[in-house]
Amino acid sequence: MNLHLAHLAAAAWASGGTLRRADLRGANLRGANLRGADLSGADLRSANLVRADLRSADLRGANLRGADLSGANLRSADLVRADLRSADLVRANLRGADLSGADLRSADLVRADLRGADLRGANLRGADLSGANLVRADLRSADLRGADLRGANLRGADLSGADLVRADLRSADLSGADLVGDTLAAYVTSADRRDYEFRLFRLADGSHKVMAGCRWMTILDYRAHVAAEYPGTAKARETLDILDYFERRLA
Description:
The protein contains 2 helices and 5 strands. It has helices spanning 219-229, 234-250; strands at 178-179, 182-193, 196-203, 208-212, 215-217. A 5-stranded antiparallel sheet has the order 1-2-3-4-5, with helices on both faces.
């Protein structure tokens, strides 16, 4: 079915209707009822899906690159391995959606509802998730490098194995989130050593740990690591300065 650039505003597809592998590039589906529709493998690049109803829709492997899904209802939709690069998902409802393995690089997810969403292995590099609701979202092994998570709600989220390098976590709520097997309470601050980033987190038990690359340890343990691995070097001095700064922040 080739519906390229078709004007399908407010279309009312029957529940379970199939548009599998359909060419819907640039189609106007604003406000369309696509609840439960089979859109697996469909080409929806640059499509207008503003406020569309896509609840429980099958969008596995669909190409939604640059699509406008602002305000769309994607609750419980299947978006496994979907291409959502640079898509507009502002205030979209993605509660309980399966986005495992999806490509969301540079996507706009400002204030999106991602409660309980499955984002395992998703690529969210450079995505804007500021103010997003990610309560109990599964972000295991997700790529969040450079993502904007300012003010995001990550309470109870699973961040095990997630790459948070250069992610902006200012004002994010990390209460009860899981990171490297520890339960978090809050993000405290960060500091750089040349091109290496150090992050300080408060844990639920009141203790603190430092994340730097693949390392996850207490400040005391990090000092011991420096003393054992590169004592008396410029690298050691820079690292110890950062650890001193962290301790001052906690004083």
